[in-house]
UniProtKB/TrEMBL annotation:
Protein name (Swiss-Prot/TrEMBL): GUN4-like domain-containing protein
Superkingdom: Bacteria
Similarity-based family: Belongs to the CpcE/RpcE/PecE family.
GO cellular component: a single term: outer membrane-bounded periplasmic space
Amino acid sequence: MTDPMILSGPANDIDSLRLQLIAGSFQVQQQIIPQLADLGNEGLDVLMEFLLKRRDNPATWVDGKVYQVLYNSDAPQAKEFLRSCFPEGIVPLKSGCGINYNPLQQLLAVQDFQAADRITIQKMCELAGPTAVQRKWLYFTDVESFPAIDLQTINNLWLVHSEGKFGFSVQREIWLSLGKNWDNFWPKISWKKGNNWTRYPNEFTWDLSAPKGHLPLSNQLRGVRVISSLFSHPAWSKNSET
């Protein structure tokens, strides 16, 4: 259903679209962003103005959507704007261990979720140390020692670039809402269908049509202990530093 607010002005009225982008509901903003993208330089100017005004606020998926439009645009002014104002992307790439999360942000910005998932586990193995990098998977004890700031960075990247559908915190909320019942959790996020585990990679859904919480995979083929450690990590505490 179309939000009534989106009908308040002509579709090609740039001032009306600007107002709706700033003041509209998430549903309105979701519809306005591609409309502005289709208006060429004038629409891109509005999107750049919107992003610049929100630069000091924590990034939401709306900011991520605007960033993705500009990132994927061929317009020189959009490229220059991102280079000068958001050189590392829309999400601050904080790490307690000096890990470079820029490759993950770039993949998520173009919504290459399968490659982003592979990079996510690689970066988590880097966090765990050289032994984990060599074996290419994690022990639950590795996860317990992760800095909260790194898990928050990875999670925020997934959240912001997926319209809020993907991320560890999304998965954790679903798990908690199901009373921490793993048997109910797996089918809810489409990691299991009936008695059959979803097969990697072809049976997973690598786009936004996937169920909420479907990604990232976080070692899902190696039992419950890693993801259980992930969900119980202090990174998700309200008192944890961000």
